[in-house]
């Protein structure tokens, strides 16, 4: 595993690291991961996207962790908390990203575990996510006990613009 250390970012720290976070997002998209953007991702758009996340972090609707090594962001994971009274027991796992240079060293698994443990500490008992079907990310989720709930064909375009299916996953989290 890499020596990267993951920490939860408050809004100010997120804004301090916005350039490095943008680098990670650009690398992730350039590497073919379907995280909501088309390639090539413009740097200004990547920076703006991360800046917008700071509002959700400040409001407590979003938790973001960054794995850093030698002043470089190598990975992130986020939890988007539900805002309706009947859904406060669940959260969405979003934007699990690992830089191509750090893949295959256990960082993705470590970030996923960190998010699951933080969810449990926050009283969240159900996590859900969506990911591109047959992607490396999907293999990670299956290997770590996530349950597939179904596939939606042509759900999102890959970074190259090709429509791809998406698999929905969930995982029950033990609290306490």
Structure description:
The protein has helices at residues 11-16, 18-30, 43-59, 107-121, 136-143; strands at residues 5-9, 62-69, 72-81, 90-98, 126-132, 147-157, 163-172. The chain has 176 residues and is an alpha+beta fold. The protein has a single domain, classed as Gcn5-related N-acetyltransferase (GNAT) (Aminopeptidase, 3-Layer(aba) Sandwich), CATH 3.40.630.30. Strands 1-2-3-4-5-7-6 form a 7-stranded mixed β-sheet, with helices on both faces. Strand 2 (62-69) and strand 3 form a beta hairpin. Helix 2 (18-30) packs across helix 3. The chain is globular, with a radius of gyration of 15 Å.
Superfamily (CATH H level) name:
Gcn5-related N-acetyltransferase (GNAT)
What structural class is derived from the secondary structure elements?
alpha+beta
What Rg, in angstroms, do the CA atoms define? 15 Å
Question: In sequence order, what are the helices and strands, one letter per element?
Answer: EHHHEEEHEHEE
Counted beta strands: 7
- Overall geometry comes to globular
Q: Count the helices. How many? A: 5
Helical fraction equals 25-40%
Tell me what portion of residues adopts beta-strand conformation.
Answer: 25-35%
CATH class: Alpha Beta
Arrangement of strands in the largest sheet: 1-2-3-4-5-7-6
How confident overall, as mean pLDDT?
Answer: 96
Q: What number of structural domains do the residues give?
A: 1
**Major β-sheet, in short?**
7 strands, mixed
CATH topology: Aminopeptidase
Termini, distance in Å?
28 Å
CATH architecture: 3-Layer(aba) Sandwich
**Low-confidence residue ranges:** none
